[in-house]
UniProtKB/TrEMBL annotation:
Annotated protein name in UniProt: Putative type III secretion chaperone SycE
Species, as recorded: Waddlia chondrophila (strain ATCC VR-1470 / WSU 86-1044)
Bilayer-spanning residue ranges: none
Gene3D superfamilies hit by this protein: 3.30.1460.10
Pfam families: CesT
One example of a Gene Ontology biological process annotation: protein secretion by the type III secretion system
Coiled coil: none
Amino acid sequence: MVEDLFESLLQEMGKAMNIPDLHADSNNSCLIAFDTGIEVQIEPYERGEFLLIVCDLGEVPPGRYREDVFREALKSNGLPHPRPGIFAYSEQSNHLIFFGLLSLKELNGEKIASFMYPFMEKAAAWKNTLERGDVPLADTMTTSHAAAPGGLFGLRP
Protein backbone atom coordinates (compact mmCIF):
# COMPACT_ATOMS: atom_id res chain seq x y z
CA MET A 1 0.00 0.00 0.00
CA VAL A 2 2.67 2.53 1.04
CA GLU A 3 4.89 1.48 -1.88
CA ASP A 4 2.05 2.04 -4.36
CA LEU A 5 1.31 5.48 -2.90
CA PHE A 6 5.00 6.38 -2.93
CA GLU A 7 5.37 5.30 -6.58
CA SER A 8 2.28 7.30 -7.49
CA LEU A 9 3.59 10.40 -5.70
CA LEU A 10 6.96 10.07 -7.44
CA GLN A 11 5.24 9.91 -10.83
CA GLU A 12 3.07 12.96 -10.02
CA MET A 13 6.05 14.91 -8.72
CA GLY A 14 8.05 13.96 -11.82
CA LYS A 15 5.31 15.35 -14.05
CA ALA A 16 5.00 18.53 -11.98
CA MET A 17 8.77 19.13 -12.03
CA ASN A 18 9.36 17.84 -15.56
CA ILE A 19 11.57 14.96 -14.35
CA PRO A 20 10.89 11.83 -16.40
CA ASP A 21 10.73 8.30 -15.06
CA LEU A 22 11.02 8.64 -11.28
CA HIS A 23 10.82 5.28 -9.49
CA ALA A 24 11.59 3.90 -6.05
CA ASP A 25 14.65 1.66 -5.76
CA SER A 26 14.85 -1.68 -3.94
CA ASN A 27 15.10 0.19 -0.61
CA ASN A 28 11.86 2.07 -1.35
CA SER A 29 13.66 5.39 -1.79
CA CYS A 30 14.43 7.64 -4.75
CA LEU A 31 17.68 9.58 -5.23
CA ILE A 32 17.45 12.50 -7.65
CA ALA A 33 20.62 14.25 -8.90
CA PHE A 34 19.92 17.81 -10.04
CA ASP A 35 21.95 19.99 -12.41
CA THR A 36 22.68 22.33 -9.49
CA GLY A 37 24.97 19.67 -8.02
CA ILE A 38 22.69 18.60 -5.21
CA GLU A 39 21.22 15.16 -4.69
CA VAL A 40 17.87 14.78 -2.98
CA GLN A 41 16.70 11.49 -1.50
CA ILE A 42 12.98 10.93 -1.02
CA GLU A 43 11.45 8.06 0.93
CA PRO A 44 8.43 7.17 3.08
CA TYR A 45 9.00 7.72 6.81
CA GLU A 46 7.34 6.70 10.10
CA ARG A 47 5.21 3.78 8.95
CA GLY A 48 4.27 5.60 5.79
CA GLU A 49 2.74 8.64 7.51
CA PHE A 50 5.29 11.11 6.14
CA LEU A 51 7.46 11.69 3.12
CA LEU A 52 11.10 12.35 4.06
CA ILE A 53 13.08 14.61 1.72
CA VAL A 54 16.83 14.77 2.47
CA CYS A 55 19.90 16.50 1.04
CA ASP A 56 23.44 15.85 2.30
CA LEU A 57 25.23 19.21 2.20
CA GLY A 58 28.67 17.77 2.85
CA GLU A 59 31.28 17.53 5.56
CA VAL A 60 31.74 20.31 8.08
CA PRO A 61 35.24 20.12 9.58
CA PRO A 62 35.62 20.48 13.36
CA GLY A 63 36.65 23.74 14.99
CA ARG A 64 35.46 27.33 14.99
CA TYR A 65 34.14 27.03 11.43
CA ARG A 66 31.81 24.16 12.42
CA GLU A 67 30.58 26.16 15.42
CA ASP A 68 29.79 29.13 13.18
CA VAL A 69 27.99 26.92 10.64
CA PHE A 70 25.96 25.25 13.42
CA ARG A 71 25.02 28.65 14.86
CA GLU A 72 23.63 29.76 11.50
CA ALA A 73 21.90 26.41 10.94
CA LEU A 74 20.19 26.68 14.34
CA LYS A 75 19.13 30.25 13.54
CA SER A 76 17.69 29.01 10.26
CA ASN A 77 15.83 26.22 12.05
CA GLY A 78 14.25 28.88 14.27
CA LEU A 79 12.93 31.01 11.41
CA PRO A 80 9.14 31.32 11.25
CA HIS A 81 7.10 29.09 8.95
CA PRO A 82 7.03 28.54 6.11
CA ARG A 83 10.64 27.47 5.91
CA PRO A 84 11.96 25.11 3.25
CA GLY A 85 13.62 22.59 5.57
CA ILE A 86 15.45 21.78 8.79
CA PHE A 87 19.19 21.39 9.33
CA ALA A 88 20.62 18.42 11.21
CA TYR A 89 24.10 17.06 11.78
CA SER A 90 25.31 13.50 11.33
CA GLU A 91 28.03 12.69 13.87
CA GLN A 92 28.68 9.45 12.00
CA SER A 93 29.73 11.21 8.79
CA ASN A 94 30.43 14.76 10.07
CA HIS A 95 27.99 16.01 7.43
CA LEU A 96 25.38 18.74 7.57
CA ILE A 97 21.99 17.42 6.46
CA PHE A 98 19.01 19.43 5.21
CA PHE A 99 15.63 17.72 5.34
CA GLY A 100 11.88 18.15 5.25
CA LEU A 101 8.96 16.00 6.36
CA LEU A 102 5.65 16.20 4.51
CA SER A 103 2.51 14.56 5.83
CA LEU A 104 1.15 12.04 3.33
CA LYS A 105 -2.41 13.14 4.13
CA GLU A 106 -3.75 14.90 1.05
CA LEU A 107 -0.26 15.03 -0.48
CA ASN A 108 0.13 15.08 -4.25
CA GLY A 109 2.86 15.72 -6.79
CA GLU A 110 2.10 19.44 -7.10
CA LYS A 111 2.40 19.93 -3.34
CA ILE A 112 5.70 18.05 -3.29
CA ALA A 113 7.00 20.15 -6.20
CA SER A 114 5.98 23.40 -4.48
CA PHE A 115 7.96 22.26 -1.43
CA MET A 116 10.93 21.07 -3.50
CA TYR A 117 11.71 24.33 -5.33
CA PRO A 118 12.56 26.44 -2.25
CA PHE A 119 14.07 23.35 -0.56
CA MET A 120 16.47 22.79 -3.47
CA GLU A 121 17.27 26.49 -3.72
CA LYS A 122 18.27 26.73 -0.06
CA ALA A 123 20.12 23.39 -0.15
CA ALA A 124 22.12 24.47 -3.22
CA ALA A 125 22.94 27.86 -1.69
CA TRP A 126 24.18 26.31 1.56
CA LYS A 127 26.08 23.51 -0.20
CA ASN A 128 27.85 25.98 -2.49
CA THR A 129 28.72 28.25 0.43
CA LEU A 130 30.07 25.33 2.47
CA GLU A 131 32.14 24.09 -0.48
CA ARG A 132 33.78 27.53 -0.67
CA GLY A 133 34.61 27.30 3.04
CA ASP A 134 32.34 30.22 3.90
CA VAL A 135 29.68 30.34 6.61
CA PRO A 136 26.13 30.47 5.20
CA LEU A 137 23.77 33.02 6.73
CA ALA A 138 20.56 31.82 8.35
CA ASP A 139 18.28 34.27 6.60
CA THR A 140 19.61 33.66 3.10
CA MET A 141 17.35 31.99 0.60
CA THR A 142 14.14 32.50 2.54
CA THR A 143 12.05 32.13 -0.60
CA SER A 144 8.34 31.79 -1.02
CA HIS A 145 6.87 28.40 -1.83
CA ALA A 146 5.71 29.77 -5.18
CA ALA A 147 9.25 30.18 -6.44
CA ALA A 148 10.46 27.97 -9.25
CA PRO A 149 13.85 27.47 -10.86
CA GLY A 150 14.60 30.03 -13.51
CA GLY A 151 12.61 32.84 -11.90
CA LEU A 152 9.01 33.86 -12.35
CA PHE A 153 7.16 31.42 -14.64
CA GLY A 154 10.45 29.66 -15.39
CA LEU A 155 11.76 32.66 -17.36
CA ARG A 156 15.39 33.69 -17.17
CA PRO A 157 16.75 37.22 -17.74
